Amino acid sequence: MLLNTAKLTRILYTRFGIKSIPCHWGQSVAESHKMQISFRTDEGLETQIKTRDKYQSPHNAARVHLERYFSCLAYALREIRDVFTLAEFQMMSDAANGTLWEVHSVKMMAAQLQDAASFDGLDKKWGVDVGALIHKLKPLTHFQHMALVDALERFWADPNRDTTLEYYGSLGLGVKK
After folding, report:
1. pLDDT single digits (tens) 25-36
2. Residue spans per domain, the chain
């Protein structure tokens, strides 16, 4: 019989009054397994995970590296604080609506913005000089582009999003004044 963590915790609580199971890294099972994620990898990602065998399992390797990735995203956003104005973030957000970004396409944001200005007039809508905005994007590193795209995706994933200075700040986007 295969038991998941929630089922095991429920059984231990109802039968023995045990509220949590200690884990080897100091957290209880109830605390350490808030969400279980499952996905299939391609061969390249599988190889990357397997080469990190120090973590004793692909699950731990994926978890540790995902935590590092999110930390790097936050760091990259801090590196580009005060580069973009509120209106530029508003235009980038508007232009990113419905866009599915891949690792290889994040540096295409300049082309996306140019199209948004040419075809949809988003530069006029938000009062942005699209040429100056594209010029600001050029020196960004690939990872800074990834962090910016991640913030724009989080913007669109939030049903309570708005285009205020405070909201963009909550995404980790520092706005130039």
Report:
1. 445 545 555 677
2. 1-36, 39-79, 84-176
